[in-house]
Specification:
CATH topology of one domain: Rossmann fold
Helix content: 10-25%
Shape: globular
Number of helices: 2
Largest sheet: 4 strands, mixed
CATH architecture of one domain: 3-Layer(aba) Sandwich
Mean pLDDT: 87
Strand order of the largest sheet: 3-4-6-5
Low-confidence stretches: 90-94
Distance between the termini: 32 Å
Strand content: 35-45%
Radius of gyration: 16 Å
Order of helices and strands: EHEEHEEE
Number of strands: 6
Length: 137
């Protein structure tokens, strides 16, 4: 995206991941705004992004910030863990995967373009693409 003159911001908890992304950007001679930190603490600001990509960060408190941060007709693409078997014990400490069919309800104001849930081993994965609706005046 940065090669196509998009302004790209990356936020990740992993210093290693951000470091690798920075090295790749340097090799490609593109500028990226990179931050090591928790996406839920990032200052998104209203109507700032045409596209937000969220992978495996299922903080329900973050979702309204993402919708607010999208420009009109902006896209949100995400892939998150999903609780597939409601009786299964969670294996990772502190995880709270989404329930089946929960994600679309967490993004009011987005028109669902794609929503798919599937089982992967003892867990599930949800893939979602939504477009911010344009309010008619």
């Amino acid at each position: 995206m940065a090669n196509r003159s998009w302004r790209v911001c990356g936020v990740d908890l992993s210093e290693v991941a951000i470091g690798k992304l920075n090295q790749a950007a340097h090799k490609l001679n593109v500028n990226l705004d990179l931050l090591v930190g928790d996406a839920s603490e990032y200052k998104f600001g209203p109507a700032r992004f045409d596209l937000i990509v969220l992978f495996y960060h299922a903080d329900r408190n973050l979702f309204p910030k993402l919708v607010s941060a999208l420009t009109p007709r902006g896209l949100l693409i995400c892939k998150l863990s999903l609780r597939w078997d409601t009786g299964a014990r969670l294996t990772a400490f502190g995880t709270d995967p989404l329930n089946r069919d929960e994600l679309p309800s967490l993004f009011p104001g987005l028109h669902v373009l794609h929503h798919r849930e599937r089982q992967v081993r003892d867990r599930g994965v949800v893939e979602f693409v939504g477009r911010k609706e344009v309010l008619e005046m």
